[in-house]
Every structure is written in structure tokens, then in C-alpha cells.
Amino acid sequence: MYSEKVMDHFMNPRNVGEIENADGIGEVGNAKCGDIMKMYLKIENDVIVDVKFKTFGCGSAIATSSIATEMIKGKTIQEALKLTNQAVVEALDGLPPQKIHCSVLAEQAVKSALLDYAKKHHITLDELNDFHPDEDHHEHGEEYEEA
């Protein structure tokens, strides 16, 4: 059901924690179903030099958060803006259909943190003009276990 990569990132998540005085912080999720992701970015000269996350949710939520941090660390803001949930799923060698929403949350958490960075630094990131971090991308009524 789950790939080796999903299990590895769930059992040994990378970049867990917080960044004090983060340049951008994004939080997405839905407390009702239990998946909440918080992403912290440290950015220098338009490059993400550090990224950390805290996720409350199922194993897939933790795995997608972990791989997303690895995918954007060391990248420019513009490169990180191109992260898609499909790229997250592919990097994990797939997810069950009912867990695809976790990859969407990972993408949204990154974009939410970048939006926070842009607001704090009074810059415009055109790629985020239509981004609304408060949209709920969950399938309501589905139960999630704490992981």
C-alpha cells in the first residue's frame, strides 16, 4: 500500500522542528480531520537556506511534509514556487488515492510560507496571486490517525 520512500519519510522524517525568527511561516490544514502542517523558511538572497516543519496528522501527511522540505531546501524562491503536489507524490513513489490530499497540503504549506515571506518583505510573488491558504483540500468525514 505504501512505498518504501513513504515509510522511510514517515519513520525518519527530515527537517522536523521550528526555525526561530523564520522569514516565512505557513500553516495549512483542518483540525477536524487531523492533518495540520506548519512550514518554517529561512531565506537568504532569495534562496531557502533552511526549512523545518511540524505536522500533526497521518503517516502520509508526515511523509509529504518531510519530502517537500527536502525538495525546496537550497532552492530559490522561484524554484520552490514550482513545487506541485504531483512532484511530491512522484518523489515518494506514489500515494494511495485517498492520501493524495496530503501532497496537496504539503504544496499549500510551502506556498503559504512563501506568501508570508512575501508579505513580511513587501514583495509580490505573481505565482501566489490566486493562492488562498485557507481553502480546505480535505475529503470531509474521513478519519485520520495521529502519527
What is the strand and helix layout of this fold?
Elements: H1 4-11, E1 24-30, E2 35-44, E3 47-56, H2 59-72, H3 77-81, H4 85-91, H5 100-120
Antiparallel strand pairs: 1-2, 2-3
Helix pairs in contact: 1-2, 2-5, 4-5
**Sheet with most strands:** 3 strands, antiparallel
The whole-number mean of residue pLDDT values reads 90
Using the 3D structure, state the CATH architecture: Alpha-Beta Complex
Termini separation (Å)?
A: 17 Å
Number of domains: 1
CATH class group: Alpha Beta
Strand fraction band? 15-25%
Please give the number of β-strands. Answer: 3
Our Rg estimate from Cα atoms comes to 14 Å
Helix content: 25-40%
GO molecular function, one term: iron ion binding
Domain NIF system FeS cluster assembly NifU N-terminal: 1-121
Protein name: Iron-sulfur cluster assembly scaffold protein IscU
GO biological process, one term: iron-sulfur cluster assembly
Short description:
The chain has 147 residues and is an alpha+beta fold.
Q: Can you characterise this structure?
A:
It holds the Pfam family NifU_N. The chain has 147 residues and is an alpha+beta fold. It has a single domain, classed as Sufe protein. Chain: A, CATH 3.90.1010.10. It has helices at 4-11, 59-72, 77-81, 85-91, 100-120, and strands at residues 24-30, 35-44, 47-56. A three-stranded antiparallel sheet has the order 1-2-3. The longest helix is centred in the last third of the chain and has 21 residues, at 100-120. The radius of gyration is 14 Å and the shape is globular.
